[in-house]
Each structure stands twice: as C-alpha cells, then as structure tokens.
Amino acid sequence: MSTEQLDAKTIEIVKSTVPVLEEHGATITKRFYEMMFDNHPELLNIFNQTNQKKGTQPRALANTIYAAAQYIDNLETIVPVVKQIAHKHRSLQIKPEHYPIVGKYLLLAIKDVLGDADTDDITDAWGKAYGVIADVFIQVEKDMYEEASALKGGWDGFRQFVVQNKVKETDAITSFYLKRKDGGAIPTFVPGQYISIRCTIRDGEYSQIRQYSLSDSPGKDYFRITPKKETTDNDVPDGLVSNYLHKSVHEGDIVEITSPAGDFILDLEQSEPVVLISAGVGLTPMISMLNTIVEQQPEREVTFIHAAINSGFHAMDDHVKEMANKYNTVDYYVCYEKPSELDQKNKTFQKEGYLDLEWLKSILSDNNKVFYFCGPLPFMKAVKDALTEWEVPENKYHFEFFGPAEQLN
C-alpha cells in the first residue's frame, strides 16, 4: 500500500486538512452523495438509501476519509479498514469504473462545503491522494473478485437462487433457505460472512441491495439467511427490502445474490475457548459460528450468550438449547430485558435487564477466551466497554456492524 507517488508537499497539505475533515467531514460526505446521485442516479441501484436517510453511510465515509488523511503517509495503518470496506464493495459489485465518479464528486463536495477555504493547492493534493487511495481499493477488490470466482462453485456478479424453504422464527424474523437455480454447487464460506441480495421491488424505480449474514454452517447445499423485518424508527421508514422479503418472497421464488464476503469471521485455526455474544438478529452470524464449531471442532469450548426483549423476540432458541444439551462443550445463557410472565414461570432466561460485566464474570470462569459479538449499536458499545474494563486484549474480541461501520468508543 504505497504512497511513494505522492510528494512531500502533497502529503503535508493532505495531513493539514485533518482538523477540517474532523469538523466538516459528515457535511462534506452528505453533500457528496447528494451531488453524485443527482448526476448519476443509476448508482442508486447500489447504495442503501435507508442508510443515507439515517446518516450512517455519510458518517462511515467521513470516518474513512478522515483516517486516510491522517495516515496518508502510512496507509498500512488502515489496512483492516480498507479490507473491511473492500469486502462490502465486492459484495455490492463496486467496480473500477465507479472510482473516478466518486473522486469527482468528492472533490466537488469538499469545494462546495469549504468554499474559499478550499484552495487550489488543497484540491490538487486531494486529487492526487484520492488517486492513490482508489488504486489501493481497486487492487484489493480485484484480488477479492478473483478469489471468489476461483472457489469451487464460485462466481462473479449476481446469480439466481431459488427460495427452497421459508421458515418463520419469530413474528419479525424469518429464515430463507436458498439453492442455486441451475442446481450447481455453492462455494464454501467462513462462518460470520454475509451475502448481498438484490431485489427489484414493484413500483420501485431502482433495484435494492442488502447484505445479510449467513446463518448456518458452510458445506451445505444451500445458503441460509435470517433477516429481521425492520419497522419504522422515528423518521426512518420500514426496512424496504426486509419487509419485501417477509411479505412478498415465497418458496419457489427467485432471488439474486452475490457470493459470500466479509471479514468478521471465526478463526478455525485456533482452539481456545470462544464466547459468542449477540442481541436481537445479531445472533445470525453467531449461529453459523456455533454450528461450525460443533461440526468441525467438537472439542472446542463455546459459550453462547444471547440478549433479547423476551422469548417473543428470541429466534432459534430451541436450536441453541439443543446444541447445549447435545454437546458438553457448549454453554448457553439468555438475558431478557423485559421477560414475560410465561418467561418468569418457565425460567427461560438467566438474567433480567441488560448484559453487564458483573454478570459476564459470574458465568465465565475467566477472560482468557476469544470473544465475538454482534447486535444493535448500544448493545455492542456496552459489550465493548465491559470487555475493555475486564482488560480483554483488543486482539481477543471481534465485532460486526449490520450496515456502515460506526464508532464504538
């Protein structure tokens, strides 16, 4: 990841813009998306418009630009961020021809927001820097495209799959079992990865792409996704694709998906005890990890911890109970925020309220384990704070965002 083609003056100017980006980054990226979509509406087929309305996508891009400016003389520092974004780009089918468009409107947005403060020197420096950063992403993504296509059963682009089974898990969560329409093999994947699904929703002007974690272990003749039907939150409308899948996609229907991607993955080279912590539909990649561990590493200790409002919102509870009963290496704990009377009567949970460090310490023998967690943003912040307070090293915990990456600090 070389910046040798950038001269010292260019690097100095780019780094000098760090305070400006920190202050105006979200405004710049919001303006960038407005200008780009106005001039290239075809890109609305790729970008998640719900994340645009929530502001999460502009914030994520602003954080990336800020990091790139901060480390422009040592881009190796942000390799993990680059790879994480590149996985999403490959899954969404972002191609090299998209980068000049992004660069053009990013520079225009900087100028539009900063006005006279954006000098010709700054524009030139950022133009050069963007070219280097874009080349890095293009090369990383090229390797990912080639790797995905080279897998047995792998492919590039979108491929048609048939909904073999549709299974209701809760009122808001449903599993879809997907098999290739042409009957061919499907590639393996690493537990924790996701696929992109593309839908052309009736009356919609543009196709919609969403990413969903694979919720079963690899090696099957199907992919399984388990999306939650997203409902209205403040001024953000119902989840367009999740509601479409739940209400309008049935067994026998055809959907288009990309091959598995993602870097939130279970390390199968290790054998140390694993703790899988989830809330809500964040359990989907954890189920994939759990199923894989008991199939491929049956001697490996795993603790599965799940938080939900109550049993009415708790998907796949019976499955995890079955795993815990079948394998003495699997422990299972449940935390309900507001348990129902039936939950209280049947004692279907171990903790009432919210997950906290005191409870984690009471159910885990020690912190000498590797932790994976996924769920709503406030939940993940709480888990990260608890692990930090418990002095769990950063390289011993891993987490996944559903959507653009946010800050957990």
Major beta sheet summary: 6 strands, antiparallel
Q: Which fold name corresponds to the CATH topology of the largest domain?
A: Globin-like
The domain tally reads 3
> What is the CATH H-level superfamily of the largest domain?
Globins
Based on Cα principal axes, name the global outline.
globular
Helix content: 40-55%
Q: Let me know the average pLDDT.
A: 89
Give the uncertain stretches in residue-range form: none
Number of helical stretches of at least 4 residues: 13
By CATH, the architecture of the largest domain is named Orthogonal Bundle
- Helical/strand content category: alpha/beta
Taking the alpha carbons of the first and last residues, their distance comes to 27 Å
Counted beta strands: 12
What is the string of SSEs from the N terminus onward?
A: HHHHHHHEEEEEHEEHEHEHEHEHE
Strand order of the largest sheet: 4-3-6-1-2-5
| Computed Rg | 22 Å
DSSP strand (E) fraction? 15-25%
Would you state the CATH class of the largest domain? Answer: Mainly Alpha
Give your account of this protein's structure:
By secondary structure, the chain is of the alpha/beta class. The protein folds into three domains: 8-150, Globins (Globin-like), CATH 1.10.490.10; 159-257, Beta Barrel (Elongation Factor Tu (Ef-tu), domain 3), CATH 2.40.30; 274-400, Nucleotide-binding domain of ferredoxin-NADP reductase (FNR) module (Rossmann fold, 3-Layer(aba) Sandwich), CATH 3.40.50. The chain is built from 13 helices and twelve strands. The chain has helices at residues 8-16, 18-39, 49-54, 56-70, 79-92, 98-114, 120-150, 240-248, 283-296, 317-326, 341-346, 357-363, 377-389; strands at 159-168, 174-180, 194-199, 208-213, 223-225, 254-257, 274-279, 302-308, 330-336, 351-352, 370-374, 397-400. The strands form two sheets. A six-stranded antiparallel beta sheet has the order 4-3-6-1-2-5, with helices on one face. The protein has a six-stranded parallel beta sheet with strand order 10-9-8-7-11-12, sandwiched between helices. Strand 8, helix 10 and strand 9 (330-336) form a beta-alpha-beta unit. The radius of gyration is 22 Å and the shape is globular. The model has no long low-confidence stretch (mean pLDDT 89).
